[in-house]
């Protein structure tokens, strides 16, 4: 085993240890210790207002499969869906999730069912809350537009793999005068979100959603561990550069 492999193992072990420490010994930590991202404040407010007003929330999960690199942002969306479903479990209008890929649709339905089971409200579970609106990008968008343009939908969130078709969904949501926020792993979709969404999530902000919305203690623990490891990595690079400059390595 060479020095680089050993350093990598130590780095991963330290990272995993920090996550376990923060999740185990500081599970009640508040996301207020993280840097402020206005989009998450508006999302939390939008969820609360929708529940109070008896309106509906729509989460678009995109059309990326979960078995390849396109699935990461969709899995983040499922975490958001769990948080939204918990908050709106007693609402007159439960949230709805749309997706353009079969596995995402099944997982969204399972997420709803699990949340209602935990809340002892299984009778309120509606399989149609997790909708498969189309199997191609634009057929998916056509179905999602019908949901986003519903006058009873006050908040439209986006977390998944999209293409240029996201512009059509955003346009329908804007005409409905609803809150639009979200992010994507696709650069084209991210550019459209940045230009058209009221509160876009840029880059890694999307992947920190679980921590900021307090989905699970491990989400916040992982973000706090990442912040520490960034400083550790930066310090290691700086020390290595100094040692290299003096010919010590």
User: What's the helical proportion of residues?
Assistant: 55-70%
CATH C-level class of the domain at 49-215 is: Alpha Beta
In DSSP terms (H or I, runs of 4 or more residues), the helix count works out at 9
**What is the CATH topology of the domain at 49-215?**
Rossmann fold
Reading side by side through the largest sheet, how are the strands ordered? 3-2-1-4-5-6
Global shape: globular
Let me know the largest β-sheet.
6 strands, parallel
Distance between the termini: 18 Å
The CATH architecture classification of the domain at 49-215 is: 3-Layer(aba) Sandwich
Write the element-wise H/E pattern from the N-terminal end onward. Answer: HHEHEHEHEHEHEHH
Low-confidence stretches: none
Radius of gyration: 20 Å
Mean pLDDT: 84
Proportion of β residues? 5-15%
Find the structural class using helix and strand composition.
Answer: alpha/beta
DSSP summary, beta strand count: 6
